[in-house]
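Q: I'm building a small set of examples for a reading group on sequence design. Run inverse folding on the following structure and report the sequence directly after it, with nothing in between.
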């Protein structure tokens, strides 16, 4: 099945065009990616281990869920879909806005942070994408990045996710 993405302009506005996953990007064309990080009351993030045969970062540990938004999806809908597809969890994100957005070459990555107790034993892994999940502290994730077992996000990004969960805005009230 062909995966279609909406094409965005540099300012994060839809252009009305679509593109197939794997196609080359034209200049000033971008697509939307989402990540959702779930945290428990102990301040740990739910992380997943990618399958050994997954294209891109096989066997590495990663944030809770992430992926590209499909044509017609908002960030919230894409995050809900990824969460259900990869871990079998249904959570309504209609009222949740991304905590922040990271710009990257040819895209925008909307990052959601949510406190939610989840029983790992109730997760249903997407067989072709996920092989394991566990709760991990900020220190453990940063150690895993250093050891080369976690996708090499900037440690400051991991710190920011942990520091901003449950908070909105750029300053303390």
């Amino acid at each position: 099945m062909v995966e279609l993405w909406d094409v965005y302009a540099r300012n994060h506005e839809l252009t009305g065009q679509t593109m197939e996953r794997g196609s080359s990007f034209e200049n000033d064309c971008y697509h939307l990616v989402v990540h959702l990080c779930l945290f428990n009351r102990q301040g740990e993030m739910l992380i997943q281990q990618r399958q050994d045969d997954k294209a891109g970062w096989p066997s590495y540990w990663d944030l809770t869920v992430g992926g590209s938004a499909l044509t017609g999806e908002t960030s919230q809908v894409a995050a809900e879909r990824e969460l259900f597809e990869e871990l079998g969890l249904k959570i309504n994100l209609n009222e949740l806005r991304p905590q922040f957005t990271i710009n990257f070459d040819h895209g925008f990555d909307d990052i959601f942070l949510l406190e939610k107790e989840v029983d790992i034993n109730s997760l249903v892994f997407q067989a072709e994408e996920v092989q394991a999940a566990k709760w991990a502290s900020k220190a453990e994730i940063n150690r895993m990045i250093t050891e080369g077992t976690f996708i090499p996000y900037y440690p400051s990004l991991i710190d920011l996710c942990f520091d901003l969960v449950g908070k909105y805005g750029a300053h303390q009230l």
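The radius of gyration is 16 Å.
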